C-alpha cells in the first residue's frame, strides 16, 4: 500500500514538474503546439533586474532648506514613498528607490530596470507631489458621470457600488481607465493649506489617529467644507490617487482635526508621511543620469547560467559516484527543485539580479546537503542490518532535525538580510529564502517518495544502490559472538 501511495505521489510530482517546466520555458511547448494545432502555453517572462536587463540610474538632490532639521528625515521618506509609487504606476517593476545622506545634502537614488522612455520617467519623478481633499458628488451626479463611460450602468446603484468606502481600489481603476472621478469633486483644499500632520492617540481607546493642523487660510476653508459635509466623506488624494475617505462627524471651525480608522501605528506613520509630503513639497533636482546597457547584463547572465549548469553537473556526478542509484534519485529531486523554484520566481514575481541568481545557486547546494544527510543516515541503518523500509523511515526521521535546524538558520539569516540590507543584497536574500523552502520540499518529500517507489525490497540490491560494499555485524550478532 505504501509503495502504491509513493507511486501516486511520484506521478503527481512528475505532472506538476512537466507543467512547471513548460511555464518556465513555454517556447518548448509552443513550438509543438504550432506544429500540431494545440493551444499555446501562457508565456510570462522572468523579471530581470537593472544589472541584467539594463536601464537607467537617476540621482536627485533634494532641497530641504525650508524644512526644519528634525523633519527632514520624514520628508525624505515621504518623498521616497511618492516616487516609488509613481514609477510603479509608470510601469517599472521592482524599482530601487533609496535615500542617501551626503555631508551637506540629501539625495534620492532611483534605479529603473528596462525603462525605454527615459525622458518621460524623469518628468514623472521630478514633479512635486500634490495633496488634495475632495468632497462627495451627489449620487445622481456620480451616476451620470459613470453612465457616460459605462452606458449599461443605470441609476444610483452603480454609484453606490463603485463609491462605497471599501472600494477605493475600484475607484482607482476607474480613474486610470477614464480619467474622470465619479465619486469625489474638488473642494479647493490642497496640501498648501495643511501646516502639519502628526500621529496621535485616541485618549479613551489608545487607538492611533492622524492629527491635522491647517494654517489660517486653510482653517477657514476646512471649516466651510466640513460644515456642508457633515455625515459625508472627505477624501484625501495624493498624486490623484485616493488614499483614504474618512467621514466628517461634525463641523470643524478650529482647523484641528483627526482621522481615525483602525490604523496600526505603522499605517498611521505611513499616511502621516504622505500628508506631510503633500504639505511640505520637497523640490528635487536631477544631478546625475547613468544608462546601463543590456549587452553587459546579458553577458553576465550568460556566464552565471553557465556557472550554474557546470555546478549542477559536478554535483550530479559526485552524487552518482558516491551514492550510485540513490544519487540518481537525488539528481532527479534536484531537477524538480530547479523547475519549481524558477516557476515560483515567475509567479511572485521575483526580480532576478546577478546577486539573486547567486542566492538561487547557493540554495541548490543546500538541497544537495539535505540529501546527503538523509542518505548517510539510511546507509547507517542498512549497515546495522535493518530492513529496507525501516532503514528508509529512520534515515529520513533522524536526518530531519539537522536539516530543519540548518535551514531555519539560513531562513532567519535571509530575513535579516532582506530587512536591513541594501536592495542588491535583498535580491540575494529573497532568492535564497525561497530556494531554501523549496529545497526542504525537494529533499524531504520528493526524494523520499522516489526512493519509496523505486528502492528494491532485497537488502543486497538496496545496499548496492547506496554504495555499501559490506554489512557490519548487527549489535545482536556481536553480543552472541562475545558470549561464545
Structure, explained:
59% of the residues lie in helices and 16% in strands. By secondary structure, it is an alpha+beta fold. It has 3 domains: 2-42 and 293-477, Multidrug efflux transporter AcrB transmembrane domain (Multidrug efflux transporter AcrB transmembrane fold, Up-down Bundle); 55-128 and 284-291, Alpha-Beta Plaits (2-Layer Sandwich); 131-279, Gyrase A, domain 2, CATH 3.30.1360.200. Helix 1 packs antiparallel against helix 11 (294-347). The longest helix is centred in the middle third of the chain and has 54 residues, at 294-347. The radius of gyration is 31 Å and the shape is elongated. Mean pLDDT is 80; it is low at 471-484.
Which stretches are low in confidence, meaning pLDDT under 50 for 5 or more residues running? 471-484
> Level of helix content?
55-70%
Q: Strands across the major sheet, in which order?
A: 3-4-2-12
Q: Just give the CATH class of the largest domain.
A: Mainly Alpha
Tell me the domain tally: 3
CATH homologous superfamily (4th level) name of the largest domain? Multidrug efflux transporter AcrB transmembrane domain
CATH topology of the largest domain, which one? Multidrug efflux transporter AcrB transmembrane fold
Largest β-sheet summary: 4 strands, antiparallel
H/E element string?
A: HHEHEHEEHEHHHEEEHEEEHEHEHHHHH
Quick one: how many beta strands?
A: 13
Taken as a percent bin, the fraction of beta residues is 15-25%
Indicate the CATH architecture of the largest domain: Up-down Bundle
Please state the structural category.
alpha+beta
How big is the Rg?
Answer: 31 Å
Shape: elongated
End-to-end CA span: 42 Å
Q: Please, what is the average pLDDT?
A: 80
